[in-house]
Amino acid sequence: MLVKTKAIVISSLRYQEKSLIVKCFTESDGLKSYYVRDAFTSRKSTQKTVYFRPLNILEIEASHRNNGKLEYFKEVRLAHPYHSINTDIIKTSISIFISEILHNCIKEEEQNQNLYSYLEASLLWLDNHDEVANFHLIFLLEITRFLGFYPEITSSDTPFFEMIEGVFIPHESISCLTEHETLLLRKLMSLKLDVTAKTFHVSERQALLKILIDYYSFHLDGFMRPKSLEVLREVFS
Questions:
Q1: Which regions of the chain does DSSP assign to beta strands (E)?
Q2: Alpha-carbon distance 153 to 96, whole Å?
């Protein structure tokens, strides 16, 4: 079946010497993997490797056979050429980190319009704003809404967050955040991307990043900590 859709590049892997396997989250069909033959040849091609940088937003025409095998692009173009994500070192580090997170946690091979819309809107926001120190933290937290384990708030004054159940509780247990960590998480939950104030100190952002990665590890089987995690920590240190 020939499909025209937007697609966000999650990852690309060189295959043999000249080809690529590209994983995308498509607006029409969720997660799809494509085979790009001869992507590294010198001859001109519409399927340039630059299209397949992590988190690029594409407009594609593709053959979807839906048989569990690799699909094929017919046409590819950039839907929203980025202004700064691929040139600003901080934003580039964020995008590599986010692409690793998405590669590890998105498994849906079916349409999820809400998730696609959130991803696209968030990436365009990142590309067009300068104050991005909290972006990766807000993004990680918000994605848990779509993955099914966003923290459940049952009371506004409970002092501890229990990581395994994902709830705020009145008494500390072995899998709880400390009171201070819980306050940081509550503060993060109140933020939106358009809040540009420097809300957290460096040490607080580092603590929140660890909390969120640990939280993903509790709730996603086989979740792998991103290789780019240390680079991101260094960028925001």
A1: 2-15, 19-26, 30-36, 57-63, 72-78, 160-162, 167-169
A2: 31
Sign of the alpha-carbon torsion through 40, 44, 49, 50: positive
78-103: pLDDT as tens digits = 999 999 999 999 999 999 999 999 99
Cα gap 1→62, rounded to integer Å = 8
Q: How much of the chain is in helix, strand and coil states, percent to nearest 5?
A: 35, 20, 40
Give the model confidence (pLDDT) of 195-205 as tens digits.
666 678 999 99
Residue 179: how many other CB atoms lie within 10 Å: 12
> Are the CB atoms for 211 and 185 separated by under 8 Å?
yes
Structure tokens of 44? Answer: 């001109």
Instruction: State both tokens at 43.
Output: 């001859």
